[in-house]
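ok so for the tutorial part 2 we go from a plain amino acid sequence to predicted structure tokens. step 1 is just haveing the sequence, like this:
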Amino acid sequence: MTLTVVDMHTGGEPLRIVTGGYPDIPKGTILEKRAYVRDYLDHLRKILMFEPRGHYDMYGALLVEPDLPGADLAVLFMHNEGYSTMCGHAIVALGRYAVDERLVAPREPLTTVNIEAPCGLISAAVELRDGKAGAVSFESVPAFLFAGDQRIELPGYGPVGFDVAYGGAFYALAECRQFGLEFGRNRVRDFVDAATALTDKLKAELPLLHPDHADLAFLYGTILTDGQDAFSDTPTKNICVFAEAEVDRSPTGSGVTARLAAMHAKGQIEIGRTRLFESIAGSRFSGAVVRTATAGPHDAIIARVGGRAYYSGRAEFIVEDDDELGRGFLLR
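step 2 — the prediction. this is what the tokens look like for a chain of 332 residues:
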């Protein structure tokens, strides 16, 4: 078995793009492909995401044949828990990758790359100058506030206020000070514990519905924020803890989209205003509400999120027949 990959990062968050070694994926919708990979090829995810080749917070992308008309490529996202429905930092990286690898015809000053994800079709715009790809922005699927101004009693923390919003995936959004936390003062571990506690509580008690497909209706994680939701020229900080307590080093593209949906629903940001979002690692994404939309019964928005992606390496991985640990393990 040989698996080849290209490694990139967007705002510090890794993306391992599979370039070879997977068997052919049967034709079908993107959600059917996601189910097939989950049910029959999950051992390959563990080889690539887990130790000794990856780590607890590794993130990956598998390119598959697109099903939607107009899509240039399609992608399945993978991480320590399984397979997500949307990933903004991956879209930014894949936009640049698609231009560099000539998966789309490059055009200056902007090249459009239409990427089919499990949540729907994402339109990425890649800045191109003198043949070199630069910043990438994307417009995602309709995003909406699912449940605003909620409150729950959280063991170990007391009453906690939160929103739940969809930005290609569902997130709980909560101000970190409710948990006694402050950016720059507390350990990342403290944020992880608080976010995971809220995620676990809501998964057990708050049913989610998505107007398009039941496979999209699950809580992906919790985003703890600095509470600076009202529009400001000052960046607002957040940390996203998703999947199995995985920490996003970037501001989280789908999370920024969800935050923008919640902000707009509460009258905290106007159409066309650009806000900066800063991650736990100090990297930044831009985010703006482009226009309003609908998603089933929900008033929704289309957001534009932008960032930069960089290459970090290329690799060829093997697994020897008698190497049990080489099939993947996690210690944290």
